Amino acid sequence: MTLADLRERIRRREALLGVVGLGYVGLPVAVVFAEAGFDVLGMDIDADRVAKINAGVSPIEGQEPGLAEILAQVVRTGRLRATTEYDALRDRDVVIVAVHTPVDEEKVPRYDALKTALIHLGPVLKNGTLVIVESTIAPRTTEELIRPLLEQSSGKRANEGFHLGHCPERVTPGRLLHNLRAMSRVVGGLTPETTETMADLYRHVVQVDLDLTDCLTAELVKTVENAYRDVQIAFANEVSLICEAVGGDVWRVRELVNKVPARNMHLPGAGVGGHCIPKDPWLLAYSVRDKEVPLRLIPAARAVNDSMPLHVADITVGALREAGVGIAGANVAVLGYAYLENSDDTRNSPSEALVARLQELGACIRVHDTYVPEYRGDLWQIVEGCDALVVMVAHDAYRTLDLRMLRARVARPILIDGRHVFSAEQARAAGWIYRGIGQG
Ligand code: SAJ
After folding, report:
1. How many angstroms separate the alpha carbon of residue 148 from the centre of ligand 1?
2. Do residues 64 and 97 touch, judged by C-beta distance below 8 A?
């Protein structure tokens, strides 16, 4: 099949699509292309996840407007089905790869899932199939790792036996379907004709700009856009430390700074979690690991953001000490374990670092989280008799808590606010000793 044939099949929605990796990226992708009228075969190594999807049930918890309903519909109409077998992908004209690409302790990318996917995909690739990698990868990875690996595992040559491109995902838990339709996408093919073919495909679901470019630019845009955010958040966090030290209120400072044109001070907070922001700056940095490029700002921003959960632990220890309570043996209740408000996603959660630190200091920890199944217990029971309450995630459910009722349940009225969920005035009026990030 030539690219021209493939473009025609895409235009007529007859192209058979495959999606490898049915997580926060792959599942919404599979759903929206099925909804757009394509025959989609999803593939994942997790048999439970595959079974749930084939039963029309979304394996993703948390608020994902529309996902569960559309998933049920496209499974019912037979447009989407899932498998654990790579072999089932033999007939696919396009295969989108959306597996996770974490970095390890040494900040080196772990491409194990990506390599495994490519090694198993190669042998079943049909002649002329278009492979699109949506996973976030370090600049130059398509050229230096993905292309040779796919040529080797398929025995075909890129741009002849198969076509290859990179279209970095731009999903956000809580807005998975929205972002897929309403956020522009950078489309980078190995050749301009491949890029055009990719754009033909994404035009069926993306309602805004498709920015056509090459693979390297696509890799750079994605890692830079998230490194940018990480640096911006780190700046806000550093300003919050200054405000705490000089007795200022970072929230008021931020509000007035952002009134100045071309200022966009981000939100200080208890830390930076998730599957994108903590990782993508390291993928960007990795691309120059063998070159004489003195990276100082990007690693420093990561260090600032990684220090914030520990800073929240320090604030907690300090507040307890002022109340005459040692941290060892203190009962501390942590509200929020997800990395993001109103999400069930706990990857790289700042709460993990906070809990580990407080436990290291001897505190007894109880955790509640509205969305995370293992922490969904009775909030009122969890806070009962605690010596300090630490809010780590701004779930809507926490914003509406009655602080007076809460005050009556705890042993000591110490409230540590890692996400400015409450105002100091509001908390103190309800009888709490309030300590907030960025508030001296
Ligand atoms: N955070 C702050 N301060 C901020 C913003 C975020 O502390 O001002 C923290 C959050 O609490 C969270 C972490 O950073 O722990 C990441 O939050 P996020 O809002 O960046 O959410 P993510 O990780 O889902 O980021 C995604 C990214 N999207 C993609 O990679 C496609 C990011 O580029 C988007 O900017 C972000 O969603 C978004 O704005 O929706």
Report:
1. 33
2. no
Write out residues in the chain with pLDDT < 50, as ranges: none
CA distances from 47 to 21, 51, 59, 62, 84 (A): 12, 6, 12, 21, 6
Mean per-residue pLDDT of the chain: 96
Q: Which residues approach ligand 1 with their CB closer than 6 A?
A: 169-173, 225-226, 229, 233, 266-267, 269, 272-274, 276-277, 339-340
- Give the CA radius of gyration of the chain: 24
Paired residues of 165 in beta bridges: 132, 189
Spatial CA neighbour of 346 closest among 392, 415, 294, 414: 392
CA of 277 to the centre of ligand 1 (A): 6
Confirm or reject CATH 3.40.50.720 for domain 3-215, answering yes or no.
Answer: yes
Tens of pLDDT, residue by residue over 100-153, are: 999 999 999 999 999 999 999 999 999 999 999 999 999 999 999 999 999 999
350 alpha carbon – ligand 1 mean position (Å): 13
Catalytic residue annotation:
222, 276
Q: What is the pTM assigned to this prediction?
A: 0.94
Mutate to test the pocket of ligand 1, among 184, 272, 421 (most ligand atoms within 8 A of CB): 272
Count Cβ atoms below 10 Å from residue 203 Cβ, excluding itself. 15
Atom of ligand 1 nearest to the CA of 349: 15
